[in-house]
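User: Structure tokens for this complex, please. No commentary.
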Amino acid sequence: MTEHSEDRREFLKVASLAGAALLANQGPSRAAEPGKAAAHSGQTAITAPTRFVEANGIRFAYRRFGKKGKLPLVFNQHFTGNLDNWDPAVLDGLAAEREVIIFNNAGVASSTGEVPATFAGMARNAEAFVDALGLKQVDLLGFSIGGMVAQQIVVDRPDLVRRLILVGTAPRNMDAGGGQGHVTPETAAVFGATYDPPENLWLKVFFTESEKSQAAGHEFLKRYFSRTVNRDVPVNEKVAPAQIAALGQWGDHPGERFAYLRDIHQPTLVLSGTHDTIVYTVNSLHLVQNLPNAKLVLYPDSNHGSWYQYHEAFVTEANRFLNEAEF
Amino acid sequence: MTEHSEDRREFLKVASLAGAALLANQGPSRAAEPGKAAAHSGQTAITAPTRFVEANGIRFAYRRFGKKGKLPLVFNQHFTGNLDNWDPAVLDGLAAEREVIIFNNAGVASSTGEVPATFAGMARNAEAFVDALGLKQVDLLGFSIGGMVAQQIVVDRPDLVRRLILVGTAPRNMDAGGGQGHVTPETAAVFGATYDPPENLWLKVFFTESEKSQAAGHEFLKRYFSRTVNRDVPVNEKVAPAQIAALGQWGDHPGERFAYLRDIHQPTLVLSGTHDTIVYTVNSLHLVQNLPNAKLVLYPDSNHGSWYQYHEAFVTEANRFLNEAEF
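Assistant:
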């Protein structure tokens, strides 16, 4: 066994702890706050029903709501996240101006199938999902590893995507501080620890240590639990290892660094926190310096969940961008 | 003579070429386009008269116009720039919501005195200018070396500054690609060349090589020449060497790298282009990763003049920030 695969094995062990934390993290552990913003379809992040569509032999779980008329915005989720892990403030803020579509990719939570061990595999499944909805073109958002899947979708199917939003993500061959399997040391440490209550994991993953950022984190947790009925099911124990393997393969990608980004001509909005410890901030700089037409926004004193901390600013920025502002 | 001082001597020789280009660059060489946006004071960047105020033994030339009511925004100018070098589209866009104040620091163009060889000296003069106007607090904008002066002003006089906008600038000990005197190799090359007409210098300094960016550059040059009466006088030959010396001292600053930024608590908006070759873009990342409360915006496919290329987006962003949006 090589040193590299030993490293990966060790990280997978750590990740199984994370899996335990996540499995324990699916139900509300405190009083919920009802959703405030009513989207124009009458549905919100709190009330939109979970629906299903079949493609590629997979039964995909998704929710679709928001104001009709513009291109829908399709969301690609972060590590071990399910339908409930999106911030309702962000979903409802965007749904006020367009349809939003959130879904579980294959093998995640209430979707059937297996999680592929590459983002290329996840992208193919996501493309099949979008095709199954009969959509010829969409706007695409990806958060963290979802941003890697989103990049791959645009590479595979350039005509399917009009505009791209990448949050807290990285190009192939990213900088991860020498962490094993291209996972930052902070990620391994934070996901390897236990939390009481378990959802406090997200205070570490998404927010900085500052008082202000932690306060924003507690507000986020309230929103996270504000959907109290028809919540999604937990992810199973096979999700984390497959997603981590995909991250390792993404980081190992051979060839000229960042060259593939030059072929992504969609207007792209890249966002992160000034202090993202999960996917280092500098990766967002690599993205905008190699994508032909990309703007960068970094929010102050914020970590991997910058857009949840600054959800109002994010919604303003993203709606403006999707409404075809030049930038 | 050390190798370092030889390098600097060589750069000063290059800079004298730049000086010649700049001296030749003060009058319009093409048909002018009148200013379009009327600021609320009735004055615009095209029509605002040049006024004078005395302080520190210096007679400062300045222009002040725009809608009264909020804190004025004071602008700190780039290398060898005078009152006419600000983009009228940016000035008028901001003047629609607040007073803007542009001025020549000591020794520059129509202001008397000598240009100090440090940004600390320039900051003291700028502070004397603001005090002489009777202003107890202002918002501050600095572009390129003007952003270095602006940082120093905030360090010197934290109570004088409410909010800070830093465009295309760098902290002390900046990254300049190993260029002599902390000047990037591209800067030395671009300012060392000659241009016909001379104002085409700015197409190289402010814009990328792309067709789209160059087209934006030609639009900028039209705006630059749109003030046809009461233009400022040229800078003299002593300005460039003193400003270059200040840049060298800023880059050499001893002590823990970027530590001084932690004491700047003003909400700060940092902006640059994704491909700034004059002050490398990565310096903007250093700024927001070390300032306690700073947001970064990088505009796509743009160089040192990113905010002139994306002047509409910049005006929207800056007005929102100065109107006390959180970020």
